[in-house]
Backbone:
């Protein structure tokens, strides 16, 4: 091997070593980025609010509605009994009261049902 060939081989092996080192750095940065991405995804999944889940899942929305429906229906019945209105009118009253007081209809209905259950007239009547 001549001196020129030796110099060329040495230069090529230096370039290969530099390229290998640069490639290893890029791979390490890529692995770090993937790890951060996975961590962010996990945080997003665990940090999702109930509202976001309801927005994305029709099943979750249906479940939430089924949870709140009985107490709202009970409150409508109480309002209907007290005022003599229709079910539609009773719900309208609940909705407007909810908006005025900035309280969810479900929470307002729960409060009405709770008060009716604890009041002397709302509890079980003795014969």
Residues:
């Amino acid at each position: 091997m001549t001196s020129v060939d030796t110099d060329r081989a040495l230069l090529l092996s230096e370039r290969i070593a530099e390229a290998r080192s640069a490639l290893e750095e890029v791979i390490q940065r890529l692995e770090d980025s993937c790890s951060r991405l996975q961590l962010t995804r996990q945080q997003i999944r665990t940090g999702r609010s109930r509202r976001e889940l309801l927005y994305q899942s029709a099943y979750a929305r249906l479940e939430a509605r089924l949870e709140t429906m009985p107490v709202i229906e009970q409150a409508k019945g109480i309002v209907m009994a007290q005022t003599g209105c229709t079910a539609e009118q009773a719900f309208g009253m609940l909705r407007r009261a909810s908006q005025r007081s900035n309280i969810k209809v479900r929470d307002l209905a729960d409060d009405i049902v709770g008060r009716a259950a604890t009041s002397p007239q709302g509890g079980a009547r003795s014969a």
